[in-house]
Structures are given as structure tokens and as C-alpha cells.
Amino acid sequence: MPYRGMAYEMDGYFTLPDGTVVEGVTEVEYTPTAEDVEQGRIEVFYTGWFEGYQDETTVEASHRTTAWEYVWPDFYFLERLSADVAPAEISLTVRHRNGARRLEEPTYAWTLPDAATQVEASGDAKRVFWLEEPGVYPIEVIVRDARGHETVVEQEIVLGRPAPYDIELSYTASNRYERAPLEVRVRPSVRGGHPRDRVIHHRYYSNGEVITDGSMYGTTTLEAGTHYLMYELETQMGTTARQILPIEVAENQVPVCELEVSESSRDWRISADCQDPDGRVREYRWTVDGEPTGRTGYRLSVNKRDYEALPLVEVIAVDDAGAESAPVQVP
Known about the structure:
By secondary structure, the chain is mainly β. The protein folds into 4 domains: about 10-65, no CATH class; about 75-160, Immunoglobulin-like; about 165-250, Sandwich (Immunoglobulin-like), CATH 2.60.40; about 255-330, Immunoglobulin-like. The chain is built from 2 helices and 25 strands. The strands form 7 sheets. Strands 2-1-3-4 form a 4-stranded antiparallel sheet. A 4-stranded antiparallel sheet has the order 5-6-9-8, with no helix packed on it. A 4-stranded antiparallel sheet has the order 15-14-17-18, with no helix packed on it. A hairpin with a 6-residue loop joins strand 5 and strand 6. It is rod-shaped. It starts with 9 loop residues before the first strand and ends with a strand.
């Protein structure tokens, strides 16, 4: 029908993509064909003029648009887990493929496990939540659109139990004979546990008494006997684990000494031959005629000008554990 909204009446016609001509209207509807969808685009033309002046005023306008088919797609979950063992943060997003890229007024009805905590909605199609215990957890989302389509999307979240902590203890000792007094430095090697967990505290015990608190290394000095060192850890997630290390400390063996005497025209020379089976001799304590000499080496000289005959000479050897040998004398 003619357009009368102006001082001059207008008339014209639409030319549709399939070649159909529609005259005398200002609006037209067109449903794309399969061929249009395959080509991907359609173009509609309108030819118009002022009545009575067709030859002078005729103009043509066009409108292009994309032609596509609304196909209900396949749906799936995009899943991200902070760990495959409990506790874990779960992130689920509903995605679709093989159909329309943009849905018409979609809605998402989520059904999460009762055990889900700290639930956060990041848009209608995404949920983030925590699961604290191992188990199998079903998830369901019903997706609908304004055209009456509906799909149930299902998923199972399977969370295992963290591996128990496996702790190995090793130590270094102050002497290779492992005899008293023995200074030890203990170090742990920790495996297992939750992959997102971490150790936040270390503690060591010796025979039930705390010896080190807060350090990864445990240090103590042990006397002869059997000792049980225990290492204990605490983690950020509240787990406690322990391991025991038995250490057998031997009694210290004192040095055994023999004296050798040689003589010159001016003095007597005494040499101490001392053997320490589990360490070394640290010093020698000499006395001459009952008086300390202050000498600490393994040899001693006695001047003949001071004595008519060799006086009583005694030596005691002190080992690296501070133990003293039995005194040895000459003559």
C-alpha cells in the first residue's frame, strides 16, 4: 500500500533473496531457505519512488544479514579440579558444540551434591565449590531455551583419599664409631599426603622429651644406650604424622697406653704410645715425681741435672670424648 507519512505519497516493492517481488508494503517477512543457510548470507532489496514521479525519484536500497539455522547443540562440562583427592576445589562450566553458538534465552538448573561447600556462581553456566571428603559425587544441570529445547547434562566427580605420609629419617653423627657422647643431626624425607598440602611445623623428641621445635632438623647429644628419636610434622590442612628413629650409642672406650724410655748423656726421654679404639687421643697429662708438668704432647724429657736417678713419671691420655686412660708409670 502507498506510504502517506510525508507530503508526497511513496510506493515501491521488496525483492526477496529467492527473487520474489512483494509490492505495496513497508514491511516484509522472509524465512531463509536451506540454500540461503548454506551460502551464509542473504540480501533483501527495496525499490521505492514518489507517486507520480517514478522515473525521476526511483531509488534502491538493500540490507544484508547472516543466514543461519538454530540447531540445539550438544552440551558437556568443562571441568577443573584443584586435586584428584579430597579436599578439592571443583570448577564446572557448561559448554556446547555442534549447534547454535548463541542460545535463545538459555536457563541452567543446577543440582549439586549436598556435600558441596563454598558454592560460587560465576554466571548461570558456571559453578565453583569445594568437596571435603573422598567419594563419588553426581552433578546435574538441566539446560532449556525459549524454543522449548531441553537437555540434561550429567557428570560424576570422583575424589580419592590422599596417600598417607611416608617419612624416612636419616642422621649424621659426630663420630663414625657412634660412641658416647654422640652429637646427632636428624633430617626428614617426606613423601605422600595431599598434593596441595604443605608442612608448616616440625618437631623432634628424644625419649619423649622435645629437643627441637620449629626447625626441619633435629639436633641433640646422646649418651651410651638405646635412644628413640621421634619426628612429628603438622600440615596446613591439619594432618599430623610421626616417625621414630632408633639410635644405639656405644660406650666410650678409653685409651690404652705404654711408655718407652730412652737415655742420653743429658736427659731421659719418655714416649707415650697410646691407642684409642674408638677415636683419638686429644692430650697427654704428665707428672714427674707427683708434680704436673703442664706438658700435653706424647713425649717428655727429664733433665739429669735435676735428678740423680729417673724419677717417677706418670702419664694419663685424654681422648676426644674427654675420657681419661688409666695412669701409666715409669720406672
